[in-house]
Amino acid sequence: MTMTMSNFPPAFIFLLGAVLLPVLPRRMRAAAFLVFPLAAFFLLLRLEPGATLTMPFLNYELVLCRVDKLSLAFGYVFVIMGFLGGVYGFHLKDTLQQVSALLYVGSSLGVVFAGDLFTLLVFWEIMAVASLVLIWARRTPGARRAGFRYLIVHAFGGSALMAGILWHIGETGSIMFNHFDGGIASSLILLSFALNAAVPPLNGWLPDSYPEGTVTGSVFLSAFTTKVAVYALARGFAGLELLIWAGAIMAVYGVVFAFLANDGRRLLAYHIISQVGYMVSGVGIGTAMAVNGAIAHAFAHILYKGLLFMGMGTVLYITGRNKLTELGGLVRSAPLVLILFMVGAFSISGVPLFSGFVSKSMVIYAAELEHLGVIVLLLNLASIGTFLSIGLKLPYFTWFSTDRGLKPKRIPLGMYLGMALTAVICIAIGVYPALLYNLLPFAVHYQPYTASHLMETMQLLIFTGLAFWLVIRKLHVEATITLDTDWVYRRPSRLAYRVFSVALCRFLDAVEDLSLRLVQLTVRLGANPPGFLVETIGHAGHLFFRTGKPAPEPSHFSPDRYRIPLGVMVLVVLLCLVALLVWDVLF
Amino acid sequence: MKRILVITIAALVIFVLLDIFLVRGQAHNGFPWSHLAGFFSLFGFLGCLALIAVAKLLGHYWLQRDEDHYDNDDDDE
């Protein structure tokens, strides 16, 4: 099929941007960055559901672009978030971050519009590398180390994906990316999708690396990798029962760990896990309502989570601090950031009139329709924890609590503008949910603003607030870190390093040393066997009798030195003859 | 402290009444708690306290470590 505006892969616009940006004049780059999401947005408006762009490759037909409502929904929010991130990072003079952000958005779009597994894999890997650069771009030792761990985990995930894809192609002969039917190949693919979605126990990489990214980089990080995984799960594994439970447990897991976090952005990172839990659960339920809910929630989540990361990123930018134990009292110096942050906080908590309310409730409603009582309760419990940590605790310890007398830097206009635009969209979706619902893949009717639903939500939130108020004096943040599943490759890695690197090196050293000694001995023995023996024995006797004389130096072989003189031989012969003579005379 | 309790109880009463008069009959599912007025008030309140308690217990007895917990590992680099 020929390439037209109706089937042009949106990823290519960003890839082009990543190539063009570094050759533009430096001061134009931040502005030029915004052109590519805008162009991609207008392209998305022109894409026609059902259109595909194919390209022959070896014996297969690659589908570089497959347009349907599922990919379009993710496409829109990715492009919008790319634009908002660009506005937020307008002050940046760091081409490395700008280029990798473009690559990251582009490759994410590449995955959601990929119709076949090869294309998916290629963009999947670009995504991992581009996101890694956004971590390393912070240029701190902590970021460097966290980046390496991130790389190892995602290399593992990518390998699992590739193995699964090859196996799948071997079994079915098809490279198309559609619903998977189970089997080992599907399990491997599921493993890599679950790893990117940070489903426990494969979640350790996320709270480990996202707080280490740059201020702007983490805004991008929070939006793409996990939601691309949600897309992939929705496409490949909708209706898989395992995911219902994995998602619900994940939602609670995230809030429990978030409560222990001291780093503001780590707290938010744990809430990504929690929120993605709703989506994974929705995908697992698999009904039209549930999948719609998962996608609606992904859409809303990308925006409010981006806003929250922008808020905490701004705090980090102006104070240089991100730990709750070192923050407090910012309400006088950065009140506007608090207001914008609270829009995000209300959205993620599902406060009515904010975006989370109209999306989260859809997943819970879908679970209610399927009579999954425990799931409903677990997801509601996660809502409580979300409001507790992000709606109450994080703002309390950052903007109120103890005034640390911080002298914040001036906030660039772009940061404000990025946050304000994102906040406007969060409220718009909450007030007018049809904006979001019209993008969803399935046509189902859902009304979030019902009396019973409003009542449930208000009760949950108000009583969470009251309980928090009750214990607030006893709550104090602690300057600690929390063990998570990244322990598995961080702590035993020390042991593995000792065993496989330090101990092995020492063993090899010892073997080398021993071999060299043997060679030396052999050389000396071969060069002068009798001398060597004499010297060794002499030396041993010398040691044995402790004569105090230094050990003799090994000598070079000289044939004359050990040759018996001719006179001695004659004497021996004569003596022998005399002996024979005597023998003959006597006997 | 007393003020909080008064407000909490007042809120509970209001929500129970609202649940009874506003929402009753609209419950869209057959869960055991669907017809229990004020259930989500209790769930929110106790759920919040339980989450804090579980998190703090897990943290103190198992998961929380010093900030330099992993740093010693990098000495071997």
Broad shape of chain B: elongated
Please estimate the helix content of chain A. over 70%
Low-confidence spans of chain A: none
How does the major sheet of chain A shape up?
2 strands, antiparallel
Instruction: Report the average pLDDT across residues of chain A.
Output: 92
- The gross shape of chain A turns out to be elongated
Radius of gyration of chain A: 35 Å
Structural notes for this entry:
- The complex is a heterodimer of chains A (587) and B (77).
- Chain A contains 23 helices and three strands.
- With 587 residues, chain A is mainly α.
- Chain A has two domains: 10-485, no CATH class; 517-586, no CATH class.
- Chain B has 77 residues and is mainly alpha-helical.
- Chain B is 61% helix and 4% strand.
- Chain B has helices at 2-23, 39-63, and one strand at residues 64-66.
- The interface between A and B is large, with 51 and 48 residues.
Please give the structural blueprint.
The complex is a heterodimer of chains A (587) and B (77).
Chain A: H1 10-20, H2 29-46, E1 52-57, E2 60-66, H3 69-88, H4 95-113, H5 117-136, H6 141-172, H7 184-196, H8 205-209, H9 215-223, H10 225-237, H11 241-260, H12 264-285, H13 288-319, H14 335-349, H15 355-369, H16 373-399, H17 413-431, H18 434-437, H19 451-471, E3 480-482, H20 487-527, H21 529-545, H22 559-562, H23 566-586
Antiparallel strand pairs in A: 1-2
Helix pairs in contact in A: 1-2, 1-4, 2-3, 3-4, 3-9, 3-13, 3-17, 4-5, 4-10, 5-6, 6-7, 7-10, 9-13, 10-12, 10-13, 11-12, 11-16, 12-13, 12-15, 12-16, 13-14, 13-15, 13-17, 14-16, 14-17, 15-16, 15-17, 16-19, 20-21
Chain B: H1 2-23, H2 39-63, E1 64-66
